[in-house]
Amino acid sequence: MTLKTRKLGSQGLQVSAIGLGCMGMSQHYGPADEAESIATLHRAIELGCTFLDTAEVYGPHTNEALLGRALKGRRDEVTIATKFGFRIENGKQRDGVDSRPDHIREVVEASLGRLATDHIDLLYQHRVDPAVPMEDVAGAVGRLVDEGKVRFFGLSEAGASNIRRAHAAFPVSALQSEYSLWERNLEPEIIPLLGELGIGLVPFSPLGRGFLTGDVKRAEDYPEGDYRRNDPRYQGANYDANVEAAGTVRDIAAARGVKPGQIALAWLIEKGNGFGIDIVPIPGTKRRKYLEENVAAASLKLDAADMAALDEALAPGKVSGPRYGERGMAMVDR
After folding, report:
1. pLDDT at 1
2. pLDDT at residue 327 in the model
3. What is the spatial distance between Cα 234 and Cα 212, in angstroms, rounded to a whole number?
4. Which of 58, 179, 239, 290 is the catalytic position?
5. Residue 269 belongs to a domain with what CATH number?
């Protein structure tokens, strides 16, 4: 199958209906495997999964460079999204954020070099910088758009006030934030605002960092360096409660003869239809097998009974534990 496209926002950005999160090719989820990662990127293009998500901080820098190598001669076949905003010094991520306009320009120039391209399709502010007015951030990106180095502007994990301020200064095409059966925090305020302003939603971690695939272990059973060792929802009593809550996903998948992760992605896409906004999830993987499973979810249709059962089973309050530790939650603009 070849994926259909969807529109993100009202500014004309067209992307594949499911994207590919590339972070795990370079960090957090076990050792890197460049050959398989590049093969996965090439397979994604074959399947029409051409919306590729990276960031300066992934690695840092190594993930963008990987895409640059993998996409040599194929740049025009894909839509590349990358991000600025974290502090990086001497190749290491440091505490804090930096969205000063001069710094945004420096990051974009460096990202263009690593990606081996003359333009970035979608440029996100990775996290809101409380020291820099959002109008200044939007203005800096707007100037890069005017120069042809960036095509569209996005935000990541921004709250309602900053979304409004940014959009008033320069049109925002997409908000990237965590949203899934596993994490519903956007529903009360943010999703209605996106509908009002004509902004698309790009959910990251749409499979609950793997939990919704059904193939999970306790935090302590993952190797050192794996993000899930420190994920509160994989730990102790939280893990037990969340395995139980996710049982409905597994049951519906079994009844349909599909994978639990495909049910979770189909739920997201159908949610977008219900909310009247474009939702384009970006499940991450570095393996062709899981890429193919994720892409196949785009053709899976859930009926009203399935949607209601899933909504109830993983309603807010039924998932146990915060989605990040204390430091990570402090960087979410809510």
Report:
1. 66
2. 86
3. 12
4. 58
5. 3.20.20.100
